[in-house]
Amino acid sequence: MAPVFRHRVRYHEADAQGFMFNSRFLELADVGMTEYFRHLGLPYLDLVAGGMDPSVVRAVLDFKRPARFEDQLDVRVDCVRVGTSSFELHTEVLLEGELVADLALTYVNVDATQAVARPLPDEVAARLRGDASSGAPAS
Question: Which domain of life is it from (predicted)?
Fold first, then answer.
């Protein structure tokens, strides 16, 4: 699992005690998804142009320790499952190598005009499967 991006916890992302709000972890996972696809050679705008519109249908978050204002977090993303129209990404948020939060997000490729699932584009599915089979841990 390689780092996808680094994020410094900003003032507006923390509560009065300086802890990062729990909802911000989903934002990190969302940015992680776009950076993950960039890492695979599929920038997000190219994905959309090629018939890809991933929507989150399931999110599971496990918090291990707090992140605080000014902490620099590493966000790592791997694909752990690929289906016909869906895929699951495993996201780790780390602080100095220690796990802060562990997230599993399931995405479905949708046709937004029809509001129905549609198969993943062949190239996207192939790249996701290649990454998922490269030794990513199952969640």
Answer: Bacteria
d(CA 92, CA 1): 9
Contact predicate 129/111, CB 8 Å: no
Q: Which amino acid is at 133?
A: S
CATH architecture of 3-132: Roll (3.10)
Q: What is the pTM of this model?
A: 0.90
Q: What are the φ and ψ backbone dihedral angles of 29, each rounded to 5 degrees?
A: -65, -35
Q: Which two tokens stand for residue 82?
A: 């690929």
Query: CA-to-CA distance for 104 and 90, rounded, in angstroms?
Result: 5
**8 A C-beta contact, residue 88 and residue 139:** yes
Residue ranges of the chain with pLDDT lower than 50? 136-139
Give me 94's structure tokens: 């780390």
